Amino acid sequence: MDVIYMDNNATTKVAPEVVDAMQPYFSEYYGNPSSMHSFGGDVAAKIKEARENVARLIGATADEIIFTSCGTESDGTAIRAAIESNPNKRHIVTTRVEHPAIKNLYESLSKKGYRVTFVPVDSLGRLDLDYLYQNLSDDTAIVSIMWANNETGVIFPIEEIAPEIKSRGIVFHTDAVQAVGKIPIDVGKTEVDMLSLSGHKFHAPKGIGALYLRKGTKFTPFMVGGHQEKGRRGGTENTAAIIGLGKAAELAIGHLAENGYERIATLRDKLENNLLEKVPNTMVNGDRDHRLPNTTSIAFEYVEGEAILLMMNEHGICASSGSACTSGSLEPSHVLRAMGVPFTAAHGSIRFSLSRYNIEEEVDFILEKLPPIIENLRQLSPFWKQAIGN
Ligand SMILES: Cc1ncc(COP(=O)(O)O)c(C=O)c1O
């Protein structure tokens, strides 16, 4: 069965061009980039090229890019560097809708005695900026705010927030894992000190990420070891993956330059608008005017998201639900809870996240299969019967 893959915020297909770029660096050009011989030096030159491409994608300079193993490592490195560089400050700030890579780290730091502020969002998932600014103080070591939300796609106004944070002399980090490659990002125009990105969200392989570190920002490495990454992250480079990340960055630059995401947004909108029209008691979670072009989180009231996923799976359709079932609980996600999405809607929320590999026929297929799935599930739902007074 063909798979219709609309779970690209979870991970993406590695682009064929990326696979081709990586291939020679496993068993043909396997030299250590730190070696004195040119067999290793040639690999170092390819890594340099990759670093330049990743830098170009976000408007940075090459020496501001530190390769890491993933978005989670980039996030953890940034937060720990900020607090270690500001040992007298005991207050850290983030939002209520961050990815677990930030959320769980902040929670563990709170147990270690840090005072943590989680900035709330409104019902559309928009950040309460007054609350953010009012809660900053001389004791604040770092503010970490995601650029775009992984569940709803809602984009936070990082360009607007950055100068406010910087004017108070506080380190500002953004988790841009979902934003990089999908919307234009320019750290030249946005005063973030650190930014996390992850290859597998934009068609590079899993297990490779990067941390942007603005020149002059105080830094303490998380991985202490060799001199790799100018002593900022020890460990022999994951050369093939770095080269793959560089290729994916180059492709993303081209895709953004030709407004490739307009086509993806058109497909997303077709899917969303038709589902809203065809299926009663359906709504979109999040601010539709400020979203990633590839993401929609749709709440089908009075049905279980897991049941929808299983039935879609029968047709080869891959998406995600808004429940944290992977954590062993059927609690709705902390993101939807923070937005105050009603229980009956949060439980039936499905995230579709598209990529440049999706085509219109796939949207049409989902539009054919999904409405009857919801209708059938609702026939079995006591909540639905109650809602329609039956
Ligand atoms: C917003 C956000 N931050 C961080 C991560 C973690 O990235 P990685 O899987 O590369 O560790 C993800 C992954 O889903 C994410 O969506």
Question: What would you say this structure looks like, in words?
Answer:
The chain is of the alpha/beta class. It contains 14 helices and 13 strands. The strands form 3 sheets. A 7-stranded mixed beta sheet has the order 2-8-7-6-5-3-4, sandwiched between helices. It has a 4-stranded antiparallel beta sheet with strand order 9-10-13-12. The mean pLDDT is 96. The site of pyridoxal-5'-phosphate has 14 residues, from helix 4. Pyridoxal-5'-phosphate binds at residues 70-72, 75, 99, 101, 146, 150, 175, 177-178, 198, 200, 209.
Compose a concise summary of this entry:
This protein is of the alpha/beta class and 390 residues long.
Give the secondary structure arrangement, pairings included.
Layout: E1 4-5, H1 16-22, H2 24-27, H3 38-58, E2 65-68, H4 71-85, E3 91-95, H5 100-111, E4 115-119, H6 129-134, E5 140-144, H7 158-167, E6 171-175, E7 194-198, E8 209-213, H8 239-257, H9 260-278, E9 282-284, E10 295-300, H10 305-314, E11 317-318, E12 320-321, H11 334-338, H12 343-346, E13 349-353, H13 360-380, H14 382-387
Parallel strand pairs: 1-11, 3-4, 3-5, 5-6, 6-7
Antiparallel strand pairs: 2-8, 7-8, 9-10, 10-13, 12-13
The structure holds pyridoxal-5'-phosphate.
